[in-house]
Design a protein that fits this description.
This protein has about 280 residues and is α/β, with parallel strands linked by helices. It folds into 2 domains: about 35 residues; about 240 residues, Glycoside hydrolase/deacetylase (TIM Barrel, Alpha-Beta Barrel), CATH 3.20.20. It contains 9 helices and 12 strands. Strands 2, 5, 6, 7, 8 and 12 form a 6-stranded parallel sheet that branches. Strands 1-11 form a two-stranded antiparallel sheet. The protein has a two-stranded parallel ribbon with strand order 3-4. Helix 2 runs parallel beside helix 4 and helix 7 packs across helix 8. The longest helix has about 35 residues. About 5% of the residues have low confidence.
């Protein structure tokens, strides 16, 4: 009898040890999977949204096209995320949805408020709108609500920043240009590194201050006008506290907690090429 009890005790102890080792190993494996998780993140780049078919083109789509895109995204299991969601994943491990996607609207056209916001609310989507400060200032000083050509004013930006569907990005104050010898944020031919840095930093800081003044928060996302940049600009935006940047290079981003969030790739969405076609690339 004693021998039987002894064997039974040994059996239970062995089983308990095995159980503990198995679960510890499973936990380590699960934790490692979480750390090593990698997501495919497509980012779609929009600009203007207008009903006038004569205006449709490379950077202008119709409200119906945008709605069809959102329907496709939703029906195929994608979840729209904001820069803050991506940053929270990297900084604290906050999980991303299984199929994340990011929708971006450049320049800050008034059509964002007129057509985009109602559709985002209808389909429970989110987007980042990257604002050019000089445009916003002009339409704040000289109010004009003509959707065909007007831009958001600072009151619009303040209200949008309070919503759950929109995040405000920095698209420079006045470097959205390909004139005056300058190509966006890139260093001009013959320009000294010191002068380029002064121009770029002053412009970007000016825009950051305006965003902070009107929204109460800094923009974490910097969007390069036309995708023009240089090595110096990447260094400076990191020094200025930005946590991610958007380029105009096309491709799907591979995102893990160790990957860079700078110069993220985006697909331009032109008239006539649906997001369905883009996501199949």
């Amino acid at each position: 009898m004693k021998r039987y009890l002894f064997r039974l005790l040994v059996f239970f102890i062995t089983a308990a040890v095995f159980f503990a080792i198995f679960h510890a190993g499973a936990y380590v494996c699960f934790t490692a999977q979480k750390i090593m998780a990698e997501y495919d993140l497509p980012i779609i780049m929009y600009h203007h949204v207008l009903k006038d078919s004569a205006r449709h083109g490379e950077f202008v789509v119709s409200p119906d096209e945008l709605e069809a895109d959102l329907k496709y995204i939703k029906s195929h299991g994608y979840t729209a995320i904001l820069p803050r969601d991506l940053i929270a994943y990297q900084e604290s491990g906050t999980p991303l949805p299984k199929k994340p996607i990011m929708l971006t609207f450049d320049d800050g056209h008034l059509s964002y408020l007129e057509y985009v916001v109602p559709l985002l609310e209808k389909y429970n989507m989110k987007a980042v709108v990257s604002v050019v400060g000089a445009y916003t200032n002009d339409y704040t000083i000289h109010p004009d609500k003509a959707v065909a050509y007007a831009y958001l004013d600072w009151n619009d930006i303040t209200n949008l920043s309070k919503s759950t569907h929109t995040e405000i990005g920095n698209h420079t104050y006045d470097l959205h240009t390909t004139s005056r010898g300058r190509q966006g944020c890139a260093r001009m031919r013959g320009e000294s590194a010191e002068h380029h840095r002064e121009v770029f930093v002053n412009d970007t800081e000016k825009m950051q201050k305006l965003i902070l003044d009107y929204t109460g928060t800094n923009a974490d996302c910097f969007t390069y006008p036309f995708g023009f940049l240089c090595n110096e600009t990447e260094v400076e935006i990191k020094n200025l506290g930005f946590k991610m940047s958007l380029s105009c290079t096309e491709g799907v981003n591979k995102i893990s907690r160790e990957s860079s969030l700078f110069k993220l790739k985006r697909y331009n969405r032109p008239h006539g090429k649906s997001v369905k076609e883009i996501l199949k690339n």
